[in-house]
Amino acid sequence: MEVVSGVHRIKLPFPEGIPEYTNVYVVEGSRGNILVDSGWGSSEVLWAFREGLRENHLKFQDINWIVITHIHPDHYGLASKLKEFCGAEVVMHRVEAGLINSRYKDFAGLLKQIEEELSRNGVPQFELSKLTEASIWMRQFVSPDLPDVMLDDGDRLSNGSFEFEVLRTPGHSPGHICLYEPRKKWLFCGDHVLFKTTPHVGFHPQSGDNPLGDYIDSLERLEALKANFIFPGHGPVFNSLKLRAAEILHHHEQRERAIIKAMSSGFRTAYRVATEIPWKPEAGGIAFKDLAPWDRRLAILETIAHLRLLMVEGKVGKIDQEGISLYLSKD
Q1: How confident is the model at residue 242 (pLDDT cuts 50, 70, 90)?
Q2: What is the CATH number of domain 2-103+138-247?
Q3: 54-68, 178-192, 278-292: lowest mean pLDDT where?
Q4: For the chain, where are the E strands, in sequence order?
Q5: Under CATH, to which class is 107-136+250-329 assigned?
């Protein structure tokens, strides 16, 4: 559908019957059209994209640039194939481009690092392999080609009718970007701000040392923008950026309190902390043991990210004992 004049949203399905979708946006311009994100790399998603173009009276050839907000499979997976179909250039932040090889091509080293991180943070042996390998199935839905154009924070991208400022917003991914059109006050925000769910921010080998701190800094930067329409990677388009940012920050404050409470009686591993707090509050709260393996891994990585931020803030300390990281609240 055409959300506002010149901006078309196409909802692309997730693979394997997962009841979710990714929003991609075609922004029309006098010197060509920009596609923001691409969806998963599968024939079903390619077909859905073609049908979405037809419903919006567009063609593959109408796409001149494919801007990737970040390289997670649901945003980047189809980019290479769409480049072939459209004859377009693929564009992303240079930090994100630097993660492609180790994430999707020579990924054995990254898997080993993730396994070591999970083990160091208390994941028991019987769960370790399952959680480490929980993301491998996703790689079949990504064609990992390098971009044609690499961006930096503050760069400008114009299609003749609209000029976007590139905002690097690390946290969900280190090279995540948003596109801001200051004249129209449009914000295309990928997974940085979502209306219905709180974006995942977890610590792992590609995340940087303090991803949650980076995320909060980025969110506060966006919060200062004047935005009439926010176009997220999932869920509905909305116009209440400041309110939604405040809700997300409140969620992280609540999660911080829950983590500190879980450590009230002594040292805890990140794994044990994760097992003692509720998850998916938007779904009413789900116990850790009832999460699927992929979601359990995300929960542990989110817990580590919180603990690392709490250490930076001086609220939590850590000791390493026999290769295991133990955390203790200072309160």
Answers
A1: very high
A2: 3.60.15.10
A3: 278-292
A4: 2-4, 7-13, 21-27, 33-36, 63-67, 89-93, 149-151, 156-158, 163-168, 177-181, 186-190, 229-232, 316-321, 324-329
A5: mainly alpha
